[in-house]
Structure prediction request, 423 residues.
Amino acid sequence: MAAYTRTRKAITVDAVKGTYQNVGAGLPPQETVAQAPLWRTTTDVVGNRKGDNPFDSEWWMVSHVLIDGVLYNPVSGNVSARFTRWATTAGSYTSPTHLISPTGFTSTELQQLGVETVAGTNPNVPQVTLPTLFVQDFRDIPSIVAKTGKSVLKDVNRKNPLDLAKRVGLTDAEIEKDLLHVRTTRMAKDTARNYLLYRWAYLPLMHDLKKLTEFVHGVEKRIKWFQKLSTGKSLHRRCSLQKQSKWSLLSSLPIYTSVPLTVWTGPRTVTTRQSTWGSAQWSISDRSRFPWRYNEQMLIALRTSAGLTPQTLTLSAWELIPWTWLVDWFVNIGGLLQATQNDVPVQHSRLCLMRKTTTTEVSVPYASVTKSIRLSGRWRRWKQTKVRRPVTNPQPFTLSILPFLEGDRPSILGSVYTLRRLK
Prediction:
């Protein structure tokens, strides 16, 4: 059977029964079945089970807010209407809007994130690079202590600028203005310096030390990978690529109106979370070079886990060159070096990128009549979009047109600018 693309739509209904009675008009109770459906739309490929297939899905739902109680005629004081589990959302269903674009990957994203996926799932990638750890991280420890000590001593020995200002005959207003500028500049530069110290010294050191504590477990896990490959089976691995979130506060909306009763959603908190990850399947590429014996697998597992291989030493040398982190923002040379490590001869296939975007909108509803009306449930709308795209032959040297100021990049560039420009 030839492969083809299909789109399926389905609705799962959660029915809630309720009644409404117009007592003032003398009408009997009116029963209503309100439906809180879950909409599902899925597009996939049929007839290519072992292939790399694109996939799209979108699910969304709206919850109920239920009304119980009575309304009184403002003139006569008699009961005019009676509600029993009456659903406010009956007949009005719309999906929330994602705050982050849930669309698929651009051609450049497919190439660059494909390289990152190969680099992140490659069984040869070291768990911790010992040359980098000892040359760079441990080298930074005396520098960290020295910088911290100098900063403390500088604050202790710093002279009061008021004394000098008064000697040159400045007025109090001029002194205050100069002091504000000096203190603001000093605070900005200290903050920038401390952030860069955290980002490029403390954080990498703590990350590498944590991986050292898990080193034995990592070696054992790597041996199991090699043993699985030696049986002729493929190794399926995945890695996280991007995570981001965004939230917004929206105004209240009326969800039920029947004079004199109006039910509002209340201020709505909208949160969107997006995660992107990649997966690849690895198999033996050169059986003559593969370590078949257990002692050979143990030795290569130790070497690759610790980063003590010729290819890993090249990667370490690249990372030790100043400002290469900025180069990797545009041309991912570091990712290329990781992706092409081949001490254990393996090759990747079935390379795919996945992205999941989830938006939740919640609020606490309230009614214009509070004494005789009770609301139960929360106003809630939920939406989830999933995308999967296969990647073929990712090119590492495509210039980056991905969002340049993403993640912690604005903080890094802002800190560098502050230290260079503020006087």
About this structure: Residues 4-127+214-421 form one domain. The CA atoms of residues 68 and 243 lie 42 Å apart. The chain has two domains: 4-127+214-421, 133-213.
